Every structure is written in C-alpha cells, then in structure tokens.
Amino acid sequence: MITILHNNRCGKSRAALQLLESKGIDFETRLYLENPLSEVEIEDLLEKLELSADDLIRKNEELWKEKFSSVSYSQQGLISILANYPKLLQRPIVIIGNKAIIARDLERLEQFLS
Fold first, then answer.
1. Looking at residue 33, which CATH number applies to its domain?
2. Which range marks the domain in which residue 16 is found?
3. Which H helix or E strand runs over 98?
4. How many CB atoms lie within 10 A of CB 86?
5. Would you name the residues annotated as active-site residues?
6. What keywords is this UniProt entry annotated with (predicted)?
7. Inter-residue contact 56 to 80 (CB < 8 Å)
C-alpha cells in the first residue's frame, strides 16, 4: 500500500497527490496535521527515508525560527518536536512498504513509483 503524508495547503503536496491520482494508483492519504505521527512512527519513517530527524524539519517555518532554532537538539529531541509540532514536517512524503521519499520533486516521485 502507498501512503502519502499530505497537507492540503501545500502546493507541492497537492501536486504529488494529483500525480498519484492521475496514474490511477491506489493509495491512502494521511492528513498529518490532523492526525500527527507519533514519535515511534517518525522513527520508523526516518528509517524508510534513510534520513536524520534534522533533515525532516522545515527550518524556514516561523515556528522553527521562533521556538527552536537557537538551541541544538539530539535526534530524539528533534523527533519529539516533530511529533508535537507536525507543521514542521517536510512534505509531501510518499511511503511504499519499507521505503519513503520527500516527494517535492514530481520527477523524483515518478522514479520512486516505477
């Protein structure tokens, strides 16, 4: 099963969703702002992405700049921040089995789907 972690307000997320729909792919949509990921789910996602928590944070968000940017955090600390502030999660993320990508680039998403 394919899952997309989706934010309706994000143009890149809407484009990725539209690409999946246009290909007739069966997928599940998780509106992660309404249904945030737990710390365990974020840890699992990081393994699938082969990234660190630092790579998963949207550092240009005002929330990050105002609340978190002036301090260094451990991996677990960043995971906790992402679980409590899902707005900081990079998007969209497409998950297939034990692999995942941050799917901002539609060409990269197409390659991931093939």
1. 3.40.30.10
2. 2-113
3. none
4. 19
5. 10
6. Coiled coil
7. no
pTM strictly above 0.85: yes
Structural domain total, the chain: 1
Ranges of H-type helices in the chain: 11-22, 39-49, 62-67, 75-84, 106-113
Q: How far apart are CA 23 and CA 67, in angstroms?
A: 40
User: How far lies 110's CA from each of 61, 62, 63, 66, in Å?
Assistant: 27, 31, 31, 36
Radius of gyration, alpha carbons of the chain: 14
- For residue range 3-21, list pLDDT tens digits in order: 999 999 999 999 999 999 9
Contact 63, 87 (CB under 8 A): yes
Q: What is d(CA 110, CA 9) in angstroms, rounded to the nearest whole number?
A: 22
Quick one: DSSP state of residue 102?
E
Which tokens hold the place of 53?
A: 């928590």
